[in-house]
Amino acid sequence: MESTDLTFRSQEILRAVVNLFVETGEPVGSRTLSKRAPIACSPATIRNILSDLAEAGLLTKPHVSAGRMPTDLGYRIYVNGLMGRHEPTAEERLTIEAGYSREIRQVEQILAHASRVLSELTNQAGLVLLPGGGQLEFQHIEFIRMAGRQVLVVIVAKSGLVQTRIAAIEEDLLQEELDRISRYLNDEFKDLSLREVRQKIVERMREDRDTFDQLYRRALELSRRAFVEGAEEGGETLVVEGASRVLSQPDFSGDVEKLRSLYRAFEEKNKLVQLLDRCLASAEVAVFIGAENQIEGMDDCSLVARCLYVGGKPLGTIGVIGPKRMHYDRIIPLVDWTADSLAQFISHGEAR
Amino acid sequence: MESTDLTFRSQEILRAVVNLFVETGEPVGSRTLSKRAPIACSPATIRNILSDLAEAGLLTKPHVSAGRMPTDLGYRIYVNGLMGRHEPTAEERLTIEAGYSREIRQVEQILAHASRVLSELTNQAGLVLLPGGGQLEFQHIEFIRMAGRQVLVVIVAKSGLVQTRIAAIEEDLLQEELDRISRYLNDEFKDLSLREVRQKIVERMREDRDTFDQLYRRALELSRRAFVEGAEEGGETLVVEGASRVLSQPDFSGDVEKLRSLYRAFEEKNKLVQLLDRCLASAEVAVFIGAENQIEGMDDCSLVARCLYVGGKPLGTIGVIGPKRMHYDRIIPLVDWTADSLAQFISHGEAR
DNA sequence: GTTAGCACTCCCCGAGTGGGAGTGCTAACC
DNA sequence: GGTTAGCACTCCCACTCGGGGAGTGCTAAC
Fold first, then answer.
1. Which nucleotides of C are covered by protein (CB under 7 A)?
2. What is the pLDDT of residues B26-46, one digit of tens each?
3. Chain B residue closest to A144 (CA)?
4. CA B124, CA B245: separation in Å to the nearest integer?
C-alpha cells in the first residue's frame, strides 16, 4: 500500500485524521474534520472518503457510531509520506546540546544523557542500545593480576566502550607475564572486531592444541577466558530512561496489562535489543508502528530509533518508545537531529 | 508505641487483621475475623477491640461501614513483634542458590541476580545497591594509555567492584610512565578507602603545590583526575529488577499516580539510594513501612532491605520494594536468608 | 460528484435503587 | 465487668434505566 494509491483529497483527509487523533486521542468524526481541517467539502463528502479509507484498512472506529482512528497501516502511510516534518525548535536543540558541554565522559554516559533528554522532550521513554558482543572493534586489552588467581580483564573498544570482567586462571601468573601476554594480544588482535577476535581464538586453539610455547599457550587460554566465555550472552547494554513518563499517557490508563507488557519488555530487554539491532543496518531513522514491532503485548506502542554512525562504524542506537499515538511529525525529526548532532559531537573528538 | 501496651487478645486480633488484610487486600470486618481467625469470642467483642485498636491508631477504615485495615503504625507493631517468621522453604532456598552455581562473575552480577530472584519469589521489585564513592576500599589502580591524550583509568576495589573512567591529560605520557605512576599510587593508597584516597590527594596537592618532582607531580595530577573529578556524583549503582511485577499488584490498580511516583523513584534513584544507605549501618534487615520511607508519593510502598557484610565490610545492599500490603512474615526472612547465604557464598571465595 | 436530510446506532453519564457488609450502640446475660 | 445478641444506621457498590449526544450510512436531490 502506497500513499500514491490515494487521491490527493484522501491523503489530505488521512493526514488530518491522524493529526487530530494524535492531538486529542479521541476518534475524529466527519463534522470535526470539516471544521478543524482545511478541507473544502462538506461532512457528508468527508464521510464518503472516510468510509473508503476505512475499507482500505487505514482507519477504524472503536464502535459503530464513533469517529475514525488510524490503524497501524494508516499511521504507516502517514509516516511514510503524508506527515510534515516538524524540525526541532531552537530551544529543543539547545536542550539537547546542553548535555554535551559537561566534562568529558564515556560514550555510554553521553548516549544515556541524550536519551534522557529525548524522553523529556517527547514525554516518552528514551532508549539507548550500546552494541556489545561481536560488533565492537578491538582496540586494547589489559590484564591486571589480582589476589586468588584471578585476573581482571579490561577490554577497550575503538568506540571508547570499556568492558571489564574477572577471569580465574589455573596457574598464578606474574604481572609481568600478563603484560607480555597483553602486549602480544594487542598486536595480534589489532583492527579486528570482537567477533573476529573470538573466531581467531577458537581457530588457533584448535590448530595449535599441542604447542609447547608457554607464553603462547597462556595467551590463548587467557584470551579465551576473556573473550569467548560469557560472551555469547550478548553484552549489549540497553538503557531505558524516563519509563515512568509512559505511565501517565492517557492511552494506557485503565489498561494495566498493556503497561505491564511494555515494562516487561523494558526488563527482559532481549526482544527490544533484537528490534533495535535491526536499526544497525542503516543510518536512517527506523519507525516501528504498533504490531510492526513484533513484540507481543506491545502492539499499542511505537518505536522511533536511529543508529549512530561515527567514522562509518555503528556506535549505538538511540530512540524513543511510547504509545502508538505519538507525534511522529515532531519525534522523528527530533530523534534524527539528535543522532546527527551526537555523532558530530562525538566524532569531533570532544569525547569518546 | 510498643506491642506490649496491648493485651494479649488485642495482639491476637491485630495480627489476625494484618494477616487477613495482607492476604485478601480487603478491609476485614469483625464477622470475617471471628470466622477465619482462631479467636474465642464473638463478633461483638471483636468489634469493641477493633474500635480500641483504631483509637490507638493501629487500624483505620476506608469509610464508615467498612472493615478495618492496618495503618503504618499497625504494620510496624505487627512487624516488630507480632508476626511469625515464615522462613524460606527448601524450594525457595534452592531457587536462590541456583544463581550461585553459574560461572564466576563480578559482584554486581551476583547481587543483581539475587535481586532478580528475590523479585520473582516475592512478586515485588528487587533492589540492589552497590556502594560507590567513598565507601569502597582501594585495592588497585591501573592506567591505560589511549589515543588522543586520553588515559583509561581502572580502579579496582577490595570488594571486587571495578570502576573505569576516561581522563584527559595535558601532556602525552608513555605507557611506561603511566605504569610507574600506578605502581607508586598502588603503594601509596594501600588499605585506604576511596574517600581517604580523595582526601589524601587533595591534601598533598595543597601541601606540595610547588614540587619539582615530575613523576610525583604527574601522579598527583592524574590521580586527581581519576579519583576526585566526577566523584562527588556518588557512583553508587542502584539496580531495580522486576519493577513490572509491582504494576500488576491490585493495590495500585486505578491509581496511576501512585505507580508513577514509584517508578519515578526508581528512575531518579537518589532518594532510594539515601534510604538504602541507611541500611549500611547495621547487618540487620531494615524495614520501612509506608510513609516511613520519607519518599513523597511512596507512602503506599514498603521496603525490606539488608546490607551484605563480607569480611566486616559492607559490600552492597539487597532488598525488595512493593506495596505496603506485603507478606512481611515471608519476605523479611527471605531477604534475611538471601543476604546471609550470599555473604557466605561470596566470602568463600567462589566469586568476588 | 457533492450535499442536505434523516433514521439509526451506540456510548456515556447521571439518577435512582436494592442489597450487602459492617459498624456502633444498647440492653441483656453469665 | 466483660461478653454477647439484636438492631438501627451508614455507606459502598453494582445494576438498571433513560436521555442526550456524537457520529454514521443511506437516500434523494442538487
1. 2-5, 8-11, 20-26
2. 999 999 999 887 888 999 999
3. B142
4. 6
pLDDT > 70 fraction of chain B, expressed in percent and rounded: 94
Q: Is the CB of A54 under 7 A from strand D?
A: yes
B36 touches strand C (CB under 7 A): no
d(CA A301, CA A323): 4
CA–CA gap between residue B293 and residue B157 (Å, rounded): 30
DSSP per residue, A28-59:
B-HHHHHHHS---S-HHHHHHHHHHHHHTTSE
Closest nucleotide to B54, Cα to C1': C23
A144 and B154 Cβ atoms separated by less than 8 Å? yes
C-alpha cell at A319: 530512540
Confidence bin at A350 (pLDDT 50/70/90)? very low
What is the reported pLDDT for B351? 39
Cα Rg of chain A (Å, integer) = 26
Alpha helices in chain A (DSSP H): 8-24, 30-36, 43-55, 72-77, 90-98, 107-122, 175-188, 194-207, 214-223, 243-247, 256-268, 270-277, 328-347
pLDDT one-digit tens code per residue, A237-287: 899 999 999 998 999 887 888 899 999 999 988 999 999 988 888 889 999
**Residue-wise DSSP of A150-207:** EEEEEEEETTS-EEEEEEE-SS---HHHHHHHHHHHHHHTTT-BHHHHHHHHHHHHHH
Strand partners, A241: A126
Cβ-defined contact of A256 to B243 (cutoff 8 Å): no
Tell me the nt nearest to A59, Cα to C1': D24
Q: Which residues contact A279 (CB under 8 A, 6 or more apart)?
A: A286, A305, A306, A307, A317, A319
Residue spans of the domains in chain A: they are 3-82, 90-131+236-347, 134-228
Contacts with A244 from chain B: Cβ below 8 Å: 260, 263-264, 266-267
Considering Cα of B212, then B214, then B216, then B218, what sign does the dihedral take? positive
* CATH level 3 topology of A3-82: Arc Repressor Mutant, subunit A (1.10.10)
Q: Does at least one atom of strand C sit less than 7 Å from the CB of A166?
A: no
Task: Report the topology of domain B90-131+236-347.
Answer: Beta-Lactamase (3.30.450)
Highest mean pLDDT among A77-86, A179-188, B136-145, B212-221: A77-86
| CATH class (in words) of the domain with range B134-228 | alpha beta
In this complex, the residue with its CA at the shortest distance from the C1' of nucleotide C10 is A65
Phi, psi for residue B95 in degrees, rounded to 5: -60, -45
Question: Are residues A156 and B156, on separate chains, in Cβ contact within 8 Å?
Answer: no
Rounded CA–C1' distance between A55 and D19, in angstroms: 33
Which residues on A lie below 8 Å from B162 (Cβ)?
152, 164, 166
**Residues of B whose CB is below 8 A from A263:** 243-244, 247
Any strand C atom closer than 7 Å to A8 CB: no
